[in-house]
Amino acid sequence: MNLDLRCGQWQEVLADIGEVDAVICDPPYGARTHRGHNKASDQVRSATGQKTRTDLHYAHWTPDDVRAFVAHWAPRCTGWMACMTSDDLIPVWRQA
Asked: What does each of the 96 residues of the chain score in pLDDT, given as a tens digit?
């Protein structure tokens, strides 16, 4: 089994990849989920009063991001695509 784990912007770190057996990823969620996470991070504190959850420091995905990702990978993937997402982007993933 050959496993290659890469971290970063998919357009950059996966530029050299052609055909794959599967795409399994956890891309950024939608705007609503990012906003909710960051709002909650301001409210979550430990018993000492210290903030215990940090804000997300990367951009949320838009429907256009999802469509670009699927358009790029669907023709190159011979098997499953399993992508974690938030409920607001599920219809976009399904349609793409």
From this structure: 788 788 888 999 999 999 999 999 999 999 999 888 877 766 666 667 776 677 888 899 999 999 999 999 999 999 999 999 999 999 999 999
Handedness of CA 19, 84, 64, 93 (dihedral sign): positive
Strand partners, 24: 82
Rounded distance between C-alpha atoms, residue 89 and residue 63, angstroms: 7
Name the one residue in this structure whose structure tokens are 């599967």: 22
Supply the pTM of this predicted model. 0.81
Phi, psi (deg, nearest 5) at residue 65: -65, -45
Maximum pairwise Cα distance, the chain:
51
| Burial degree of 9 (CB within 10 A; 0-12, 13-18, 19+) | exposed
Residue the block writes with tokens 């023709």: 75
